[in-house]
Fold this sequence. Notes:
Layout: E1 3-4, E2 26-32, E3 35-40, E4 44-53, E5 55-59, E6 62-66, E7 71-74, E8 80-84, E9 88-96, H1 97-101, H2 121-143, H3 148-166, H4 180-196, H5 203-209, H6 214-225, H7 229-247, H8 252-258, H9 264-275, H10 279-294
Antiparallel strand pairs: 1-6, 2-9, 3-8, 4-7, 4-9, 5-6, 5-8
Amino acid sequence: MSQIIxxxxxxxxxxxxxxxxxxxxxxxxxxxxxxxxPSHWHEAIEIIYxxxxxxxxxxxxxxxxxxxxxxxxxxxxxxxxSRCPSGNxxxxxxxxxxxxxxxxxxxxxxxxxxDYNSPDATVQGEIQRLRELLLDMMQLQETSRPGYLxxxxxxxxxxxxxLYRNFLRExxxxxxxxxxxxxxRLDAVLDYTHQNYSSQITLRDAAGVAALQPEYFxxxxxxxxxxxxxxxxxxxxxxxxxxxxLVTDLSIRELEERHGFSNDKLFHKLFRDRFxxxxxxxxxxxxxxxxxxTR
Length: 295
């Protein structure tokens, strides 16, 4: 897996998982013309499998590039951000903690580690089997023949069994699940940010919501979200603006004003740093992808 070691939105501290009633997990095959999701976490294991194009996932101190045929498992509670730089098609699986708790007596320290680059042929065989199961579940869901859920659930439980038997590891000593007090503060700050991101809110405003002094709030937010509050604010603004960029014909200046960017030069720098293109080029490319799919 190529790695560069570097440094749907819900108004809550965590992203809400839309599980299907018949599966009790989320299993989607999605086409993305280009998007960006800022730092968030789930109360679920998440698996991203790239079928076409690329995906980039940031996990605290590393950024992982996923190419076709590669997948990534993200443990429950782990803060991450993701972006689709130039269009992709992916399998997205989210397996809620509640679902896992129905099969395991204690999931509080459940932690999986997959060495995708392992030289061990046995490990690579197990990873390949995980890929095969994901693809088989996709095919079963696409055909949706009567009774397909029997085979789908068979594959799902084989997938989880393989993970549990071969990739279960001790939770890292430097990772601690967030306490209810921390979650409550983060919830309040993120909700405030999401509600007011289009206004000229300040770090002092956000610190006040958390009932913390600005200096301590900066450390608190970075330790728990893996980024600064200001970067998170700008990332959230970019993510909302990017969606409107693709689905509306509003001018760039109108989009900046709608989404809280008061400094045009700063906005263009942030956009280029995040998406490696200009807003107009991003819109043009997305429209070309849409047109090619409808032909």
